[in-house]
């Protein structure tokens, strides 16, 4: 019965009803007032007949054939024509806003003219026309939208294109390039010193500011979509490690970051609030995650921590421990365990010094404390000292050595004078009835050795050669100390005129021919003055030496990786060997192709590996 009615009646009625329904839907889209009930009734009738017919094929096709497909095709054709009005004379942003508005209207409209099973197909058809087909148009205008940093506008592009996951790749690439270009450009524009260097705090905080700017977009515009997380990470890694500031060395960014953390954790830091300090340390960890040369960071960090602990410059034990906990996640247990051992040494020293004070209380002339450091845990260099200690200092050193050896037989103490310091009291000559001022100078051991000569010398004037002979210090070391004394006007530099007899006071030039005398007119507003500060040239020299050490360590690591790979594979092609070495080392640092080639040449020369006699690009392991 239903089949006959369908064939005899429905076909004829639908041929009349469908064009009317399509015409009314067109008017509906043109904002004309229409009655949607007849349209919905026709849609429901088609669906009802499909459900009543028993044949599966009919059930699937009647509603689609007589209503769903014509309506969807008609809607698609309408927007193919209509979208030209959206685009012409419009910006990409306005186009996207119009599309978004249209989709909202159509979502409401489809419920008045279609059955629920058609909603997805209907929406998909319109989205294809307005979004997928105009993907290139949207991508073309996206960089300009991204430049504005307006979260809602950027989110609109993501909201539309995310309906087609593969359509996000275009704006993902644009976003990644934007982050990289912004990072390189803004780091390039940072203020520089005369030697081209940049302040560590300025460098690190600019990196974090750039990261946070785009991370805000990632969170609020891209809903933390994994492909955009990857884009931000890749871009940050690129601009942080490869920029004009760090072009001289792959370890430069590590050096600047560790200098920044050193400033945060050292006494005298301008950040007094603990929560603010924690926030700054978290920022440094964020930057560290993107650094390729983690080995360099670890080396610099250990060196700086060692200085803070040895010089009693650490501002807070809790902050130091907090930073170690943060580093454990990125650098691993082996690294942070070395840092923890350094702290353990410091705690043990407190007890040892307390016992020494009791031991030497009766005959102690100097308030003395020592820091006994385990050689394996501390990155401090030792060389046999040439320094001749002043008598009063050598006496107490001998006493401590005797005390220590009595408790730790078999151990050898190597004194690192370059890391030692003293507080000395300096009394000015009295003038008239006024009491003479006293100053406390913090000096290095070598500086003390020089100053003590002015106390014991038979003359007020001491020559450079006398200082050299009495202290055993090298000329550069003497010049460095005297330059600091001269800078604060603690001493007067005396150079002689061309006749070699007439003295010419000078505070400019220090040479091996100079002589020196204490400045009895010295005065300062500060009663405690730190003279144990490295000259800028010395700091730079230390930095160069550290970078050289790191490069040598990298070279050894590359050679070790090559040997490991070749020992396992026995025979390997050059390009495959290079790839394997990079994969083994990339968690520590990114080895350069040139460095790998040099390491291969070195191993060939030392016959760890050899070239294949038939193919020059094949290497064989030599057992």
Looking at this protein, list some descriptive labels:
5 helical Cullin repeat like; 4 domains; alpha+beta; 623 residues; single chain; Ribosomal Protein S5, domain 2; 4-stranded antiparallel sheet
Task: Please tell me about this protein's structure.
The chain is of the alpha+beta class and 623 residues long. It has four domains: 1-163, 5 helical Cullin repeat like, CATH 1.20.1310.10; 194-346, Cullin Repeats (5 helical Cullin repeat like, Up-down Bundle), CATH 1.20.1310.10; 421-534, Cullin, Chain C, Domain 2 (Ribosomal Protein S5, domain 2, 2-Layer Sandwich), CATH 3.30.230.130; 537-621, Arc Repressor Mutant, subunit A. The protein is built from 22 helices and ten strands. It has helices at 2-29, 37-52, 56-87, 92-113, 119-132, 135-148, 151-161, 168-188, 200-220, 226-241, 252-265, 274-288, 294-310, 317-331, 333-360, 391-407, 445-456, 464-471, 475-487, 536-569, 574-585, 593-605, and strands at 421-427, 438-444, 462-463, 491-496, 503-506, 515-518, 528-530, 571-573, 609-611, 618-621. A hairpin with a 6-residue loop joins β9 and β10 (618-621). α20 (536-569) crosses α21. The longest helix is centred in the last third of the chain and has 34 residues, at 536-569.
Mean pLDDT across all amino acids: 86
Question: How many structural units, i.e. domains?
Answer: 4
**In angstroms, what separates the terminal alpha carbons?**
91 Å
| Full CATH superfamily name of the largest domain | Cullin Repeats
Give the helix proportion (percent range).
55-70%
Secondary structure: number of strands = 10
Query: Helices and strands: which structural class?
Result: alpha+beta
Keywords: Isopeptide bond, Ubl conjugation
GO molecular function, one term: ubiquitin protein ligase binding
Family: Belongs to the cullin family.
Pfam family, one: Cullin_AB
């Amino acid at each position: 019965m239903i089949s006959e009615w369908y064939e005899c009646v429905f076909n004829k009625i639908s041929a009349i009803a469908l064009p009317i329904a399509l015409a009314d839907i067109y008017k509906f889209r043109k904002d004309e007032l229409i009655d949607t009930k007849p349209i919905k009734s026709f849609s429901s009738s088609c669906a009802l007949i499909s459900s009543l017919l028993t044949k599966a094929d009919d059930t699937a096709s009647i509603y689609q054939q007589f209503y769903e497909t014509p309506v969807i095709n008609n809607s698609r054709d309408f927007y193919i024509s209509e979208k030209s009005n959206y685009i012409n004379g419009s910006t990409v942003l306005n186009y996207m806003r119009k599309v978004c508005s249209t989709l909202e209207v159509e979502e409401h409209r489809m419920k008045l003219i279609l059955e629920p099973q058609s909603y997805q197909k209907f929406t998909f058809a319109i989205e294809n026309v307005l979004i997928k087909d105009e993907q290139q148009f949207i991508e073309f205008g996206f960089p300009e939208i991204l430049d504005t940093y307006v979260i809602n506008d950027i989110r609109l592009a993501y909201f539309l294109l995310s309906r087609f996951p593969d359509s996000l790749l275009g704006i993902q690439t644009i976003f990644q390039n934007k982050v990289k270009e912004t990072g390189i450009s803004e780091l390039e524009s940072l203020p520089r010193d005369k030697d081209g260097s940049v302040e560590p705090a300025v460098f690190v905080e600019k990196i974090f500011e750039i990261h946070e700017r785009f991370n805000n977009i990632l969170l609020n515009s891209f809903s933390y979509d994994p492909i955009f997380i990857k884009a931000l990470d890749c871009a940050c890694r690129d601009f942080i490690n490869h920029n004009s500031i760090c072009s001289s060395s792959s370890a430069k960014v590590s050096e600047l970051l560790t200098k920044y953390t050193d400033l945060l954790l050292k006494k005298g830091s301008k950040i007094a609030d603990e929560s603010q300090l924690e926030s700054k340390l978290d920022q440094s960890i964020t930057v560290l995650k993107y650094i390729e040369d983690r080995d360099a960071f670890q080396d610099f960090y250990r060196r700086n921590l060692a200085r803070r602990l040895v010089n009693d410059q650490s501002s807070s034990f809790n902050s130091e421990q907090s930073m170690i906990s943060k580093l454990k996640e990125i650098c691993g247990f082996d690294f942070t365990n070395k840092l923890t051992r350094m702290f353990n040494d410091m705690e043990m020293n407190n007890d040892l010094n307390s016992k020494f004070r009791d031991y030497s209380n009766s005959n102690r002339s100097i308030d003395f404390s020592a820091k006994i450091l385990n050689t394996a845990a501390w990155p401090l260099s030792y060389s046999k000292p040439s320094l001749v200690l002043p008598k009063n200092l050598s006496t107490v050193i001998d006493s401590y050595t005797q005390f220590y050896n009595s408790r730790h037989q078999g151990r050898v103490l190597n004194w690192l004078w370059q890391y030692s310091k003293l507080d000395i009291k300096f009394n000015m000559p009295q003038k008239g009835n006024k009491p003479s001022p006293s100053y406390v100078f913090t000096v290095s051991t070598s500086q003390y050795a020089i100053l003590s000569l002015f106390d014991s010398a038979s003359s007020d004037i001491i020559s450079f050669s006398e200082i050299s002979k009495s202290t055993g210090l090298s000329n550069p070391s003497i010049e460095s100390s005297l330059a600091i004394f001269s800078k604060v006007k603690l001493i007067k530099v005396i150079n002689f005129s061309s006749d070699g007899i007439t003295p010419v006071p000078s505070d400019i030039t220090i040479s091996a021919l100079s002589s020196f005398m204490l400045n009895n007119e010295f005065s300062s507003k500060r009663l405690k003055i730190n003279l144990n500060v490295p000259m800028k040239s010395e700091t730079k020299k230390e930095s160069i030496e550290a970078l050289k050490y790191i490069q040598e360590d990298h070279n050894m690591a590359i050679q070790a990786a090559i040997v490991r790979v070749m020992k396992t594979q026995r025979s390997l092609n050059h390009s495959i060997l290079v790839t394997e070495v990079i994969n083994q080392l990339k968690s520590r640092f990114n080895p350069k192709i040139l460095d790998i080639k040099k390491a291969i040449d070195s191993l060939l020369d030392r016959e760890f590996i050899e070239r294949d006699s038939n193919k020059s690009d094949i290497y064989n392991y030599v057992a």
